Each structure stands twice: as C-alpha cells, then as structure tokens.
DNA sequence: AATCCTATCTTGCCATTGACAAGATGCCGC
DNA sequence: GCGGCATCTTGTCAATGGCAAGATAGGATT
C-alpha cells in the first residue's frame, strides 16, 4: 500500500525494496540484479548503492523486514501450536521472497545489528508459540519439542516452495500443512 | 578417489564436477563461477561449456548425481524410519553442496530426463523408508505420514545448513536429528 | 537573501562473468 | 596415412557489481 508516486526525489529506498520483492519472486534471490531494480524504479544504475551499499546490503534490509514480518505474523497467530505452524507455512508461501532471503545467510550480512534483533524477535515469537505444547505424560524437553515443531513447519514450507511436493498435495498449502503438522501435535 | 592426474586430455568432466563441489561448499551454489572452475581444473575458460553447455547444465549434472547418492544412502539405511531420517540429515550435512543444489530447481533444468529418473529413484527410496511406520491404532494415511517425516527431516537439515539453529543444539547433527525425529515416530 | 552543506542521484569507468563463434589439437578407426 | 570427431583454446560481446567523481536540490545558518 501507500504506492507514493515519488522516486526521483522521494522514497527510493522503499521503491527499491518493493521492486526487489517482485524480482525475487520472478527469478529468485540469487539472480537478483541491482541494475534491474534501478531500471524498475526509473533511476540510474548506481542509485541503489547509495541506499544499501551493495547487493548484500539490500538483501540484509529485506531479510530484516522479513524477520519482523514473521514475528508479527506468529504473534497474531496466537498461542496454539498448530495454528502457529500453519501461520509459519502460510507466511513462507505468501511472502516467498522474504522467506527465501531470510534463510540464505550467505547472501546478506548475518551480523548486522538491526537484522540480529529482528531475527531474535522472530525466534522469541516462535518459542512462545511452542510453549503451549500438550505436556502429555512423558517428561518434556521444550527445546527439542520446539525444534521439532520448527523443523516440520520449516521443512514443509521449504519443500512446498521448491516445488518438490507431489501434485497430490494440492493447491491449498494451509490445509496440507495442517494435516502434516497434526502428525506432530497429537 | 581415483584422482586421475589427466585433465588436459582426460576426465575433465569429472574434475569439473569435483571442483564445483568444493566451490559450492565455499561460496554457495549461486555464486558458482564457471571460469573459476576452469581455473581450478587448469583449463581454458570455455572448456566447461563443451561438457555441460552452460551453468544450468553443470548444476543439472550435479543435482542428478546428488539424487542418485541420496537414493543409495537411503537404501542402505534400511527400513527403520528413524534411521532413514537420520540418514537423510546426515546426507545433507556430509554432501552439503549436492543437497543445496538439489532443492534449488531454479538453478538447473528440472525437466532433464536423467535428473527426473534420479529424483524418482530417490523419492521411491524415501517412501519405502516410511512404509514401515508403526501403525499404532488410528487409521493411517501413509501419504501424509510420509510427507510429515520428509518435512521434519528436511526442515531440520535445512535449518542446520542455514546455521539457523541455536548453539545449544551442538556439533553432532546425527544425535540432534535423532532426538528431534523421535518426536514424530513415537 | 545569499551561502553553505549534506543527502540524493547521475555519469563514467573497470574487472569479472556467461555465452557464443571460430579455430586449433589430438585421438581413433579405416 | 588420412579423414572425422570429440575435446579444448582464443577471441569477442553484452551484462553486472562496484567504485569514483561530479551534478542537483532542499534546508539550515548567517
């Protein structure tokens, strides 16, 4: 939203990030071209460098944005583990570009301060979603349980995005994810 | 093994694939440079093109090799689901370069004939490992169970490779994977 | 109002890369 | 010995990332 019409002097930074999301959905994060972004935004080929330094800088900004969005998404999904898992998969599918960058740290500056805090925020949201696991009998190892939940949601999302899943899984990721995630929670 | 010393006229193809594995472990599959591979192999910058056509061709060969290796690995892991899961994660860690390419189909020709058969072979090995799920009571949906098992193993492997796991998980992927995968099988 | 100042953006440049074309080299069968 | 073919080299071009130097403009200071 707020598609402000001013690049030439205005919010170029925002426009470039938006263009990057489009481009990544089309060709993937690796094939991203700064010059292509500049063309999409209608500015010169060196304009992006001023806002992000280099390509890694731009992807760092994108990853930070992504972790913030994920934290927000998980928080509003509530405390139910199954719902949180579905929200995680849904996030990956709906914000594919963000998600693909976030988990490819070799493409950005993983030590960047803002990024680190955003990632920790997302991590906290993730753990709080798992804290409500049904403690059915056996001694619980929350860390391992959290990791298992994260793994199954992340794995399903990744396989979905990679197009690795058989056609039979169908076109509704939320439904399919729910059926899969249920295997863990029961 | 069989580090034959003949490139200039010899098994350049094999040497290039080996060099590619090294390079990918160093800089990731996206930053792979054909010219760098040529330098590593001691040949001219255009030599790789003859064997693989282009970069996608080389990565297709690598992915095919990877799926074959995975099929072989899963087959020799036996019929136990937990063992198969651990073998899957172990494969990802030990053959990181192969694994990273295999699940990034935008980098290679996913429709290539040899690749398709290799991938199907790996898929079959995967499913046969899941077929021995403990049918404890409830009506079993094998497809969904298989998908859940694949998801949790794949997710753990992916998170491990991305360096996303907390330090506490430790340096032994097999052990950590086993503890996580157990959450699903019990 | 004139001036400086700084953020923003442009132009120009260079090394690297992927891909292609054309030519050289050497092996193998006849 | 000779032709043919696979293999490899040299040369070239467009695209890209990144750097340097310069242009432009809006705001603050005086």
Automatic annotation (TrEMBL), chains A, B:
Keywords assigned by UniProt, alphabetized: DNA-binding, Transcription, Transcription regulation
Ranges where the HTH tetR-type domain occurs: 10-70
DNA-binding region range list: 33-52
SUPFAM superfamilies: Homeodomain-like, Tetracyclin repressor-like, C-terminal domain
Keyword DNA-binding included in the entry's annotation: yes
Pfam families: TetR_C_33, TetR_N
UniProt cross-references to PANTHER family, sorted A to Z: HTH-TYPE TRANSCRIPTIONAL REGULATOR RUTR, TETR-FAMILY REGULATORY PROTEIN
Protein known as: TetR/AcrR family transcriptional regulator
Organism lineage string: Bacteria, Bacillati, Actinomycetota, Actinomycetes, Micromonosporales
